[in-house]
From TrEMBL:
Signal peptide start-end: none
Species for this entry: freshwater metagenome
Residue intervals of the tRNA methyltransferase TRMD/TRM10-type domain: 1-225
Family indicated by similarity: Belongs to the RNA methyltransferase TrmD family.
The protein's name in its UniProt record: tRNA (guanine-N(1)-)-methyltransferase
Length: 227
């Protein structure tokens, strides 16, 4: 999978070199490329934004610069993801869908956003016919300063679903039972007693049927608490 991100803060993406993502990148399973939006700004002060038409607070990112940055990245069969708090809520189902994609492009706007004509333009038939799909995505009901951290969250959730990225693929099949929002059961390891707190007896019993039932019940209790 190829992943491009366009941002005015390329340094935000340094964590991509760490842990599982770094290994996946070294192994050539995912290919990250980060692009500095400002390098496409040819105006006097390398400005990337301007005041909104109609007035109001904040600045809006210039469509011209986004067009220059995105045009060369949008090859056939690409998912263009525009990060905005007004977008569709990212969840495990969306992560699973994007993990099947061959090319993701993350457009990281500051929170006041990118001129809406950028979305409108890339949603035109000329792009749709080349299998370029545009998605406006949010990671939750709160406002971040920009789309960079949201992109990292999405990249981590998506890439760990690609075969070969996760060390132990069994963790994926166990999770998939939980895709509809079922939270996992509590886990324990050695020692059997820690600071006077004992591991639940059933887990030491070796009775796999009863253990599975207990875990399903605990997961259900957790899910209920979080409603
Ligand atoms: Cl994608 N962007 C911003 N700026 N804030 C957010 C978000 C995205 N998702 C949740 N909050």
């Amino acid at each position: 999978m190829k992943i491009d991100a366009v941002t005015i803060f390329p340094d935000y993406f340094a964590p991509l070199q760490l842990s599982l993502l770094g290994k996946a990148s070294d192994a050539g399973i995912v290919n990250f490329q980060i692009h500095d939006l400002r390098s496409f700004a040819s105006n006097n002060h390398h400005a990337v934004d301007d005041t909104p038409y109609g007035g109001g607070a904040g600045m809006v990112m210039l469509p011209e610069i986004w067009g220059l940055a995105l045009d060369p990245l949008l090859e056939n069969d690409t998912d263009l993801i525009i990060l905005t708090p007004a977008g569709k809520r990212f969840d495990q189902k969306m992560a699973a869908k994007f993990s099947q994609s061959t090319h993701l492009v993350f457009a990281c706007g500051r929170y006041e956003g990118i001129d809406d004509r950028v979305r409108q333009h890339y949603q035109r038939e000329q792009y749709a016919s080349r299998n370029i799909r545009v998605h406006e995505v949010s990671i939750g009901d709160y406002v971040l300063g920009g789309g960079e951290v949201a992109s990292l969250v999405m990249i981590e959730a998506i890439t760990r679903l690609i075969p070969g990225v996760l060390g132990n693929p069994d963790s994926l099949s166990e999770e998939s039972h939980n895709e509809d929002g079922y939270l996992e059961y509590p886990n324990f390891t050695k020692p059997a007693i820690w600071r006077d707190i004992a591991v639940p007896e059933i887990l030491l019993s070796g009775n796999h049927g009863e253990i599975a039932k207990w875990r399903a019940n605990e997961a259900a209790k957790r899910a209920e608490k979080n409603l």
